[in-house]
Amino acid sequence: MIIIEKSSHSNSIDFNDISFGKNYSDHMLYCQFNNGKWEYPILKKFGEITVSPISLVFHYGQAIFEGMKAYKDKDGNVFLFRPFENFNRINSSAQRLEMPLISKSIFIDGLKQLLYIDKNWIPNNYGQSIYIRPFLIASDGRLSANPSKKYIFMIICTPASNYYFTPLKVNIEQKYSRSADGGIGFTKAAGNYASSFFPTRIAQEEGYDQILWTDSSTHSLIEESGTMNVFFYIKDSLITAPANKKILNGITRKSIITLAKEKGIRVKECNLSVSELIYNIRKNLVKEVFGCGTAVVLNFFKKIGYKCENFYLPKISYEKRISFFLKKRLLDIQHNVVDDPFGWRFKL
Ligand code: PLP
Ligand code: COI
Questions:
Q1: Which fold has domain 168-334?
Q2: pLDDT for res 142
Q3: Where are the domains of the chain?
Q4: Which PANTHER family match (predicted)?
Q5: Pocket lined around ligand 1, Cβ cut-off 6 Å
């Protein structure tokens, strides 16, 4: 059962002027975990919440989240994209951070109701969507460093178009790390993002948009970048880092791999060393490099920095890029422009 407390007021939105995270839909899902069980979720007006200052989320960072999208087709039908992947991933993050698992009825049914009540917030322009942010935080504690006994699960939504508007410049990180063996790199834990802000600011001050992360022990193997998994189109293969326990196993990544294989492109999920990458760039064998993720969708890179040297990737017109083809194929499936041979669309 979901308790619905409908807002008496609906905010308006101009879909021609969407920037990521600027506007939030009228309602949010709110659900508390108390005494070892989840209470009934409540759909209520988007707004502030009250939590105790001793909540563990503030002190020890028990916080995880997801990122997913819903799309409209030209007739106004609404589709979530692979929502069960996000459902499974939030629970694997929850398990790693010693937080309670969320049930399908709270996550999926709650989300369906939220999107139904706020369906006017879903843009119907091709390439636009509603970005959905489910998150789970610890809301209790005794200041001792132990897992919380109370939690809050919420879902909020923001209309979305492009995350980046230009090709990206990335710097290969040689000092800081995003994750380590045995750590939480595979989770969408808030702390993974907090720890990236300082090195990212340094990279940005040096003229880059994002960091291209490397492995924490040798800084010689490429992992991922910012909020994206990364693909390298070298000779005739598309190479991406293996989804091990150190990188986020992106749902867009999985989808791009499937779509590339469908197109007959050879995909290698293997480690790519920095020296191999630089060698191939110098030999003009790297045709394209791109990052992908739910918020970003797919964005190609134009410059890669390494130890104070910059390497420029080939200038290829958009329509001739493999990344352009893959992005369009993905968006066509998401927006119900073409058949969905993989069963990725989930109609509301
Ligand atoms: N890697 C990181 C660190 C991310 O934050 C994201 C975004 O969610 C991704 C990769 C891509 O994952 P997905 O395609 O599931 O959004
Ligand atoms: C996503 O793509 O869903 C993300 O999590 C990106 C977000 C951190 C802005």
A1: D-amino Acid Aminotransferase; Chain A, domain 2 (3.20.10)
A2: 83
A3: 3-161, 168-334
A4: BRANCHED-CHAIN-AMINO-ACID AMINOTRANSFERASE (PTHR11825:SF44), SUBGROUP IIII AMINOTRANSFERASE (PTHR11825)
A5: 67, 224, 227-229, 248, 250-253, 293-294
Tell me how far apart the alpha carbons of residues 120 and 128 are, in angstroms, rounded to a whole number: 13
Q: How confident is the model over 71-130, as pLDDT tens digits? A: 999 999 999 999 999 999 999 999 999 999 999 999 999 999 999 999 999 998 999 999
Measured CA to CA, the distance from residue 120 to residue 194 in angstroms comes to 33
Nearest protein CA to atom 8 of ligand 2, as residue: 227
- Residue pair 212/200 in contact (Cβ under 8 Å)? The answer is no
Q: Is 67 in the pocket of ligand 2 (CB under 6 A)?
A: yes
* pLDDT tens per residue, range 203-235: 999 999 999 999 999 999 999 999 999 999 999
For the full predicted model, state whether its pTM sits above 0.90.
Answer: yes
pLDDT digits (tens, 9 = 90+) for 310-340: 999 999 999 999 999 999 999 999 999 999 9
Query: Under DSSP, is residue 31 helix (H, G, I), strand (E, B) or coil?
Result: strand
* CATH architecture classification, 3-161: 2-Layer Sandwich (3.30)
Taking the C-alpha atoms of residue 302 and residue 290, their distance in angstroms, rounded to an integer, is 9
Which of 188, 228, 240, 331 most suits a substitution to test ligand 1, by most atoms within 8 Å of the C-beta? Answer: 228
Which tokens hold the place of 115?
Answer: 């999107």
**Backbone phi and psi for residue 275, each to the nearest 5 degrees, phi listed first:** -65, -35
**DSSP conformational letter for 150:** -
Those residues with Cβ within 8 angstroms of residue 320's Cβ, 6 or more apart along the chain or in another chain: none
DSSP class of residue 320 equals G
Are 266 and 238 a contacting pair, CB within 8 Å?
yes
Measured over all CA atoms, what is the biggest interatomic distance in the chain, rounded to whole angstroms?
Answer: 63
